[in-house]
Fold each of these.
Amino acid sequence: TPQNLYIWSRCLTEMRRSSILNSTARICAGGRVSGYKGKMPGVLEEIIIALEENKPIFLLGAFGGIVKDVCEAIIDKKTPDSLTLKWQVAHNAGYDELQKIASEQGFDAKYYEILKVLQNTQLSSLASLCGLDENEYKKLMTSPFIDECVHIVLKGLKNIKN
């Protein structure tokens, strides 16, 4: 039911928030754009929480999914369809009802705010938090080569540790 989905989504948000607060960094690749159980795609919610908490977040955008769309919003200031309420409602059964219940509780996914946060996120800030320079971070966001991405992430983690 929509009420069950609302409770489920609140639990997922609290789980993600707790996990992020108790971690040093996040590494994100792929991620569903539809067919999820939260108030928004799970990896998207993790990215937003990590940004709010100023946590290092390594975004591997070339592997598709919601992370690719997030990278496009950050790098190119685009508005990918999956980052709009209209698209989410059209591609997730029952999502409109979940958003209505969540809105009444002040817990709905405000895609226009999410997009604004992403489009205002500076590549230099993301890179700095991850112990990388801006070129390295942009390469991480766009490289389709997993070995290159692993190398960049490990370099960043080593720099954070030091």
Note: Residues 5 and 79 are 27 Å apart (CA to CA).
Amino acid sequence: MVKFSIIIPTFNSKLTIRRCVDSVVGQSYEDFELLLMDGASQDDTVAIVRSYHDKRIRVFSEPDKGIYDAMNKGIDESTGDWLLFLGSDDYLYAKDVLLNVAPYLLNEFDVVYGEVESNLPEFHKGKWCLELIEVNRCHQAIFYNRRFFGHAFRYNLGYPILADFDINLRWFLNKRYKHRYIPVIISHYSTGGISSFSKDEAFLKEVGLNKLRYNYRVLTPLYKKRAARQYVIANPDKVILNFFLSLYADMMSLIQKIMSPNQK
């Protein structure tokens, strides 16, 4: 049997946290811990969670540097074999989610991901592929083997809104990490959070180059070309690097035409 660590970052979440916690403590699969990583809420969030008196729930409340700092702290405090991150306004889709997912969590995999339910139909994407690489996968449907994070690998706090996208690109593009898709709805994802209406400028500036850094062998010449040009467009001030990336993009374009002459 595997042990789950369900990590929930919170801040002034009294209106939604009970529904989220209920969805976890009501699971038919009982081998889990719930880590509430609270950013020193000034409302009743912490009191609500402590009122459950469930030994599987651990509450940490102190100032943090945002959601990904809280998630990093949760990783450090977790003891489970597989980690899942939920927002305080999200909740597990059904009472048998953990029971149904557990058989898929073989130790040979670093990441196992499924689906989320939301009021936006585009979140039902099926297996992630290069054609969908520009759209993030919801971390509310992703289980991470704890060895994936290890002792030092954490969310990049330099990306305050899309650090989870950065993490997902790392495991998807790097052949070092084994991942599998399962056609299971894991959670209900609540839209309208900060990532729905704000841009992560730091992430957007670096994502093109990061795609090449994270193991470009996964990318075809077409996507290598796109990644290089994506960085050039986002960073017009990087004159020298852009010169070489532009040459690289032209080379990839030529290789692409040779390999797939009909592909644009």
Note: The chain is about 35% helix and 15% strand.
Amino acid sequence: MSETTHIHTDLDTLSASLTDLRTRLESDPPSGIQGVVGFDGFVDTFIRMKSPASMAEFGPKVAAAAGIAASYSVDHQGDKFGGNGPLFAAAIHDIFDATANVTYIGGIGDGDVEPIFQEALGEKLSRLVPIAASAHSDCLEFTDGKIMLGDFDACGDVTLDNLLKVLGEKGLDDLLKEADFISAVNWGKLPHVGEIWSTFANRLKELGREAKSVPMFMDLAEFDHRSGEDVQDLLARMEILTAQCTTLLSFNLKEAWQLGDRFGGNFGGKKDPESVCELAQLLHENVKVDKIVIHPNSGAACASQDGCVYVPGPYCQEPLISTGAGDNFGAGCMAAVLSGCDDTEMLLMGNSTSGYFVRSGRTPNFDGLGQFLSAWSAGTLPERL
């Protein structure tokens, strides 16, 4: 383990970072932040499993029922807007207490914005740019995780051509001239989105935006079905993106294991903080980005030129909701970067945003994050907020 690796398994060794972060949260958050988020869009049907309630129980039961049939008790909770991008955009709006000006571009309608997205985001975001119809997911939620059953056909229509048909080159340039950040998420489900990512970086350069002045948050999301050639193409684009933007590439633990295998890592099943940090460092050495972030359920790690840091998470035994937790984590990290936080503070803010969300179904603003951190530090954090 490198001398620049700092592993914190509890909050006792993080007092200085917690104090600095609370100070930031107690001051006025940056206002008037402008950003562009994209590019997916899903309508999610939520199904809470009642019996069996956990994935650990569900898996063996399904296997035992193979070739026969099975029936399980659920709570059908209806449809909600979804997709990593829309959830991220909504979370940024809430963290900055409605002062951020966010444009969302993506699969939220073919022609007109679909009603479910208009209702959820129309009053929150500055602009909605529909470039393709939404996809659909059935979200099976368990006490220890979730299973996403997705119909991804519409994702193939999220293309640069469709974006430019709707927005136009001037419209895109106008957004990029003023953008304080970019969030590009769910590469795994969008087969043609790499060209959009690269075009954004190239246009920023051509518009005279200073190199490294615009942070770009990226989350690949589940990418099991993408080919090795697709992954290689993505890795080649990362160098272009990082030359222009300050890049953050975020993974859940399964996704990080999967990419780590490509570089000779053997981390599958390893969840301890030391292994998570080693994996983050392996990815940082092999992927041309400024920061690699990995967020298992129990904490989060960030590897950058400053080394690797791991911080614990405010673990919730039985989350009220898990879909959207990763997007809230990412939005918390981006808000931290925009607020001038270092890697440790960024992870604490990401974990706190996610921890607040899974307990309440809501995204906190700066005040809410400060209260959450205080309760977490004092050991009085409840399971529900």
Note: The chain has a mean pLDDT of 95.
